[in-house]
Amino acid sequence: MSRFKETNIKDFSPNPFEIKNKWMLISASKPDGTVNTMTASWGSFGIMWNKEVIFVVIRPQRFTREFIESAASLSLTFFDESYKKALACLGKASGRDEDKIAKAGLSVAMYRGTPYFEEAERVIFAKKLFVQRIEETAFLDAKITDRWYPEKDFHYLYIAEITKILEK
Fold it and tell me: What are the C-alpha distances in Å from 1 to residues 11, 103, 121?
């Protein structure tokens, strides 16, 4: 963390719409210390229960979900454009089948048991507060389910309190 500087949450003004084009990695570790990550382009920041939070969604078949489920906290890491190819690789490959983190050329670091990547330009650590599977019956616009869920593999929604922000 020596190359990072902590940012006060009160000074943090994220652009939630950046995620769509810039992507991020969602990472967690299991109690045995193994780490997994996945590329994501959906999510947001906000206030919930008077806390600064992140909202992330993960499909049930994603290997990373096992790690998120077994951990109390997770990290979101953001990178500059030069890492787009590595993030694409991490979004396509499964950690079940290969060491995709090594293949992408990233260096795992840990902060209080939560993994992040040394190459990131910003790291957000968050403590899980809520998880619920999105249900088909909750959608008011069937076009969304038709387009985004043809396999009926509805995401799990996680809401997590931001506990620390690091920036280079």
Answer: 19, 22, 11
